[in-house]
Amino acid sequence: MCPQKSKRAETTVGGLRADAMAGFVVFLVALPLCMGIALASGAPVVSGLISGMVAGLVVSWLSGSELSVSGPAAGLTVTVAAGIATMGSFQAFLTVTIISGCIQIIFAMLKSGSLAAFFPNSVIKGMLAAIGVTIVFKQIPHAVGWDSDYEGDESFFQTFDHSNTFFNLVESLEHLAEGAIIIALVGFFIYWLWGREYVKKSRYLKFFPPSLMVVLVGILVNLSLERWFPKYALAAGSSHMVNVPNLKNIMDLKAAIPTPDLSVISEMKTWSLALAVAMISSIETLLSVEAVDRMDPERRTSKGNRELVAQGVGNIISGLLGGLVMTSVIVRSSANIYAGGRSRMACFFHGLFMLVFVLMFASVLNHIPLAALAVVLIAVGYKLASPKVIKSVWDLGLEQFIPFAVTLVAVVFSDLLTGVGVGLIVGMLIVLRMNQYSSITMVNDGDQYLIRFSKDVAFTQKPRLKVLLAQIPDGCSVIIDGGGAQFIDFDILELIKDFIDHADLKKIRVEWRNLRSKRLKFGGGDGELQSPAFG
Hints:
The protein has 535 residues and is mostly helical. The chain has 2 domains: 2-386, no CATH class; 439-513, Transcription Regulator spoIIAA. Helix content is 61%, strand content 6%.
């Protein structure tokens, strides 16, 4: 028994170590994202940090997912910015955040968490690949040392400068910073090095994720440039570096955060805006959690309704403390998984690190080059949209690849919700088309025809049936067999009856089986010739 206990303890310690390492990596990735999204939303920078802290310290324990990471979402920046303008102040919008959290809990009580299960796998895979492509495009400017857009933007059309992803990418190549490029190249070399067998087998190096080493070495490289090649170094406080507000203690944090203006709680615009925020954030959350389940190495299934409760509680607390609206977010969740996170402890550690470092080590964080973080995110993006991933979907056939490709392109050239919506519509159209061909089959032997329903037939199969009936030549015999269907839509039965009633005009002899309707009378029993011309 003792060796088993020892092994279990070793596994627990190993899991905690892996989660702590992954949590630290996620914290480094989330830090500039939280601040950038807050700036883009027109909110105080500290509000983005508070949202990230609450997501890690509170939501992680309530979440329905083991590996999902929550925080302020880029997909809500436009909604939040417009909401602040509508409410007149960020303090008033905090009340909207609190109410939206309550509405999310109501959504959970109504069992809305199961909606994510209705999204086809091909659409979810396309969404993940699109996020990967978007990350790469958005982070290349940071890797070369210039970006006019805020950190964390995922939309094709940029809010800050009204440009777009491709123009920003091209423009960044005209504003190269040598120091950033050196740091990025060193970071990519570390990822290559960590893929070698001798590093994987190393007694010590294997415990350090490459993403963490990229950031640490990036700091050392920039400090070295400051010492020996100052003209190439990235200056602290510049747009090339992480810029955390200098909060010396918890009292400074308390003084910096806004408080909610509850006087607007009785206004109709407050509730209508809260409903819109709750719906958008809930959809993004459910999509993200569904995507995380696809990436989970242990293939665990998340609980959608529990996740909505967690997000609701998180938004209530975040709003009360002066934080931004939060959702489950794919980029940080992906970084967590690829950094080796194993459980919800990784998300908790990310929130804990954010609290401790923002309060106690802000000056240390401000030495982190954004180019190093860009390398980490580009590596995550590549894994999400690698050629291997695209080929695996292609091998499944066109009915899977088309929705995947459409979703990928739509998300890259618009935003997450718009792209997924387009992909979902295309996926549904393909399913309907496939159902038309698989639900109704027709075979013939000479002038003898058989139309068979192999499964339930809805009104959407009506065009397919009309085409098949029109193909039956004059003077033939046809059997229509509905035995394979538990349900046959009234429109289908009506079309069949109309065909039978006019079969004598084309000298067609009709027999039907297993067609029953309380509203349409087909005549005698199964197996009998029932056409009016031959009955």
